[in-house]
Amino acid sequence: MARKQQSDPKLDMTPMIDVVFELIIFFVVTIKQEDLFSQLNVNRPAAPQNSSSAQEDITVNIQIGRRYDGSPHGVILYNSKEVSRADLDSNLKMIARTSKKTPIIVRCAGDSPHKALVDVLDICYKNELYSVSVFSL
Amino acid sequence: MARKPQENPELDMTPMIDVVFELIIFFVVTLTETQKKDETIELEDGQHGEAITPDTLPPMHMQIDIAKSGRISMGNVELSPSDVQNRVSKRKSANGGREFPILIRADFETKHADVRKVMDACTKAGIWRLTFMAVGEDKTNSRKRLGKYVKR
């Protein structure tokens, strides 16, 4: 179409600028920063391919239970003794110094909070102990 | 039709631009509103785990959400443990019988018994290696802001 566009010398930019500012405000308000996530891998016991590697001399046993005073942190037992997270960390540090391949078996009680399991796994990962198996009690 | 368009020298573009921007806003809002995960879940901190980035996560993975109440869901669709088992075994056979990563996104207050249901379902479907999701870097500071989190 050979329609001649009439040039408008009084083109009003104000509404467009209004809308653009509205958009900027909208995006600034709605965009939120996302958390960065990490992953903690575990093995389930009785895996057929793991039967050969389960013949290590030392295994580390960690038990996780519920605390009866209603604390959300749960209770961690290392060698059947209650330990704090810092104690567990120093214990695992010593084990990691001997062998990083030491299998770790975490036994979780059904009523223990998931937080305690993630905390234990995180401490294992901190000490570069990656062969962790989780049993459910 | 040979209707001659009436020439309008005062063609106003403003309403059209307004409508187009309105459409952009509409699509942005609706796309972010259809959440693909359970928003109630608060993860525990785990700074030492391997960071999850689009590069480290294979495309063939599965994410299973477990809320505080024990509600199991995938893509915000509630599932029973046997549904999880069916889906996992289907995905495994689609993957040529090979294992694939399963990410378990469980709330920090979830009882282990509920997490176990999912773990057992995955084991029954033939996946022995599971991954728990944790917060590597708490950029939103959500837990502290909610006042629920006291580090021991």
Description:
The complex is a heterodimer of chains A (137) and B (152). With 137 residues, chain A is α/β, with parallel strands linked by helices. Chain A has helices spanning 14-30, 85-98, 114-126, and strands spanning 36-43, 60-65, 75-78, 81-83, 104-108, 132-136. A 5-stranded mixed sheet of chain A has the order 4-3-2-5-6. In chain A, a hairpin with a 2-residue loop joins β3 and β4. In chain A, α2 (85-98) packs parallel to α3. Chain A is elongated. The termini of chain A are far apart. Chain B has 152 residues and is α/β, with parallel strands linked by helices. The mean pLDDT of chain B is 79. In chain B, α2 (81-94) packs parallel to α3. Chain B has helices at 14-33, 81-94, 112-124, 142-146, and strands spanning 50-52, 62-66, 72-74, 77-78, 102-106, 129-137. Classes of the chains: A alpha/beta (137), B alpha/beta (152). The interface between A and B is large, with 52 and 55 residues.
What is this structure, in a nutshell?
The complex is a heterodimer of chains A (137) and B (152). Chain A is α/β, with parallel strands linked by helices and 137 residues long.
Compile the SSE list and pairings:
The complex is a heterodimer of chains A (137) and B (152).
Chain A: H1 14-30, E1 36-43, E2 60-65, E3 75-78, E4 81-83, H2 85-98, E5 104-108, H3 114-126, E6 132-136
Helix pairs in contact in A: 2-3
Chain B: H1 14-33, E1 50-52, E2 62-66, E3 72-74, E4 77-78, H2 81-94, E5 102-106, H3 112-124, E6 129-137, H4 142-146
The string of secondary-structure elements of chain A, in order, is HEEEEHEHE
Kindly state the number of beta strands of chain A.
6
Radius of gyration of chain B from CA coordinates? 23 Å
| Unreliably modeled segments of chain B | none
Structural class of chain B: alpha/beta
Distance between the termini of chain A: 79 Å
| Total helical segments of chain A | 3
Number of strands of chain B: 6
Query: What number is the mean pLDDT of chain A?
Result: 79
Shape of chain A: elongated
| Fraction of helical residues of chain B | 25-40%
Biggest sheet: strand arrangement of chain A: 4-3-2-5-6
What's the main sheet of chain A like?
5 strands, mixed
Distance between the termini of chain B: 79 Å
